[in-house]
Design brief:
This protein has a five-stranded antiparallel sheet, covered by helices on one side. By secondary structure, it is α+β, with helices and mostly antiparallel strands. It is built from three helices and five strands; from the N terminus they run E-H-H-E-E-H-E-E. The protein has one domain. The longest helix has 14 residues.
């Protein structure tokens, strides 16, 4: 069992409060857009703290490779339920640092990025 965090570039203009949010997320899985550089950097930062599941079973991630969860400017970050309390805040903080929106599905909480926290290229 896992707790999922949806993270995305604000340009997608997704709002979890939108009744069509689940359908809009599902539609993203139909695209073949390559992973965005921001989400690749975000994933690398997550893997600095917790190794990929392809490297070890002792990790917070419930799937591997974690980079395989990136779809263009959107990513699902599945965290093992047993590590949710530990890794969840790290996912949210890291998303904020990278200027990404982050929706914690388990807690039904949506975190908007802070403009000052967006890394510069």
């Amino acid at each position: 069992m896992s707790a999922d965090f949806h993270c995305w570039d604000p340009v997608l203009k997704l709002q979890p409060s939108d009744p069509d949010f689940p359908q809009k997320v599902d539609a993203l899985y139909e695209t073949e857009e390559p992973p965005s550089p921001v989400l690749l950097g975000f994933t690398a930062a997550l893997l600095e703290r917790y190794q990929d599941l392809t490297a070890t079973d002792n990790t917070a991630w419930s799937v591997g490779p974690l980079s395989g969860e990136i779809i263009g400017r959107f990513m699902n970050v599945p965290v093992r339920w047993s590590r949710y309390e530990e890794a969840g805040p790290f996912v949210i903080e890291t998303a904020q640092r990278f200027g990404l929106c982050c929706y914690d599905l388990a807690a039904n909480r949506f975190y908007m990025p802070g403009r000052l926290n967006r890394p510069t290229a």
